[in-house]
Design goal:
With about 325 residues, the protein is of the alpha/beta class. The chain has helices spanning about 10-45, 70-85, 105-115, 150-170, 170-185, 200-240, 250-260, 270-280, and strands at about 60-65, 90-100, 120, 125-130, 135-140, 300, 305-310. The N and C termini lie far apart (about 100 Å).
C-alpha cells in the first residue's frame, strides 16, 4: 500500500498571498501610469497658457518681439518716446509686440508692465501698449496714476480709431506711432482733433502751419542762443570769483542744458553750487528728467491694477 503525504493548507495560502501581491503591484502600476498621463496633459495645457514675460529693453522703451518693425522704425519710435518724456512727466509709454502672448491679453499686459516697471517710481504714470500679432489682439495697460487723464474710454478710443485700422492694414509703425502720440496727448489733458477738414480749410491750415513752424523755429534758435550766452556768463562769473574752480567740457555742456530747461526761481544759477548737485544726481541737474537721463519709460514704476482697454483686428 502506498501512503500519500497529506497536503497542508500552507502552499495554497502562499499562492493566495503571491497572487494578491501581484494584483496590488499591477494596480500601483496602473495608478502610476495614469498619474503620469495626467501630469503630461497638465504640462501640455500649461504650455498653451500665458507666455513667459519677455526681458525689458536694454535701451529705450520698445521690444519688437514680433519683428514687425524695421530698425529705422524702432529708432524713430524710441526717439519719439524720449522726446515726449523730456517734455512731460504726465506719462511714460512703453511698447511691446509679440507673436502669440497666449491666454488673456489683459493679464499678459499687466504682468509685463509690472515686471518691467513701466513708469517713474512712485508716480504710477506708466502706460504699456501691447500688440499680439499672432492672436491679432491689442491692449493699452494704464497705471493708476495716469487714469484720471487717460481714462479707460480714452484708451479704448485709441485702440478703435488708431491701432485697429492701422494693424488691419499692416501699417504697424504708423499705428504705434500715432497711438504713442495720442497717449501723451490725453495724459497732458488734451484730445485728438476729430473734425474732418475740407480741402480749402486744409490748405489754409497747412499754410498757416508752415508760417507758425517757421516762426517757432526762429524763436527756439534765438532763445537757445540767448540762454547759452546767459549760462556762459554765469560760468565766467563763477570762474573769476574762484580761480581754482574749473569745469570739464562735459560739465559745462551739462550746465548749459540745465540752465536752458531750468529758468524759474527754483533754478540753481551759481555753477559752484550746481556742481556738487550735478555730481550727486546727473539726471536731475543736466537738463534731463527725474526719471533718468536715457529718456526711457522704464524707471521702476508700478500701480497696474487693471486700467486700460483691449481690442482685436
Amino acid at each position: 500500500m502506498v501512503h500519500r503525504r497529506k497536503r497542508t493548507a500552507i502552499p495554497r495560502l502562499l499562492r493566495l498571498i503571491r497572487g494578491h501581491a501581484m494584483k496590488r503591484m499591477m494596480d500601483v502600476a496602473r495608478i502610476t501610469g495614469a498619474t503620469a498621463a495626467v501630469v503630461l496633459v497638465l504640462t501640455a495645457c500649461g504650455g498653451s497658457g500665458t507666455e513667459a514675460t519677455p526681458e525689458p529693453p536694454g535701451q529705450g522703451s520698445l521690444v519688437d518681439a514680433a519683428d514687425v518693425l524695421t530698425s529705422g522704425e524702432e529708432q524713430s519710435l524710441n526717439a519719439l518716446i524720449v522726446e515726449r518724456n523730456s517734455a512731460t512727466d504726465a506719462a511714460r509709454v512703453a511698447v511691446l509686440t509679440v507673436d502669440g502672448a497666449g491666454g488673456s491679453i489683459e493679464d499678459y499686459a499687466r504682468s509685463v508692465a509690472t515686471a518691467w516697471g513701466v513708469g517713474d517710481q512712485g508716480a504710477d504714470n506708466g502706460v504699456l501698449i501691447v500688440a499680439d500679432t499672432g492672436e491679432r489682439e491689442l491692449r493699452i495697460e494704464t497705471a493708476d496714476g495716469v487714469r484720471d487723464a487717460l481714462s479707460d474710454d480714452d484708451a479704448e478710443s485709441i485702440i478703435d480709431n488708431v491701432l485697429e485700422p492701422a494693424f488691419a492694414d499692416e501699417e504697424y509703425a504708423r499705428g504705434l506711432t500715432e497711438a504713442v502720440e495720442q497717449v501723451y496727448l490725453y495724459a497732458e489733458g488734451g484730445e485728438p482733433v476729430q473734425e474732418p477738414f475740407n480741402i480749402g480749410l486744409l490748405a489754409a491750415v497747412l499754410a498757416g502751419g508752415v508760417l507758425v513752424i517757421g516762426a517757432l523755429t526762429w524763436w527756439i534758435v534765438a532763445d537757445s542762443r540767448r540762454r547759452r550766452r546767459a549760462a556762459d556768463e554765469e560760468l565766467r562769473t563763477a570762474e573769476k570769483a574762484d580761480l581754482d574752480f574749473r569745469l570739464t567740457d562735459e560739465q559745462r555742456d551739462a550746465y548749459r542744458k540745465y540752465r536752458y530747461r531750468k529758468r524759474g526761481d527754483d533754478a540753481v544759477s551759481n555753477p559752484v553750487v550746481w556742481l556738487p548737485l550735478y555730481a550727486a544726481n546727473p539726471a536731475l541737474y543736466s537738463g534731463g528728467t527725474a526719471g533718468g537721463s536715457s529718456g526711457s519709460s522704464i524707471n521702476g514704476g508700478g500701480g497696474f491694477s487693471g486700467g486700460g482697454a483691449s481690442g482685436s483686428y
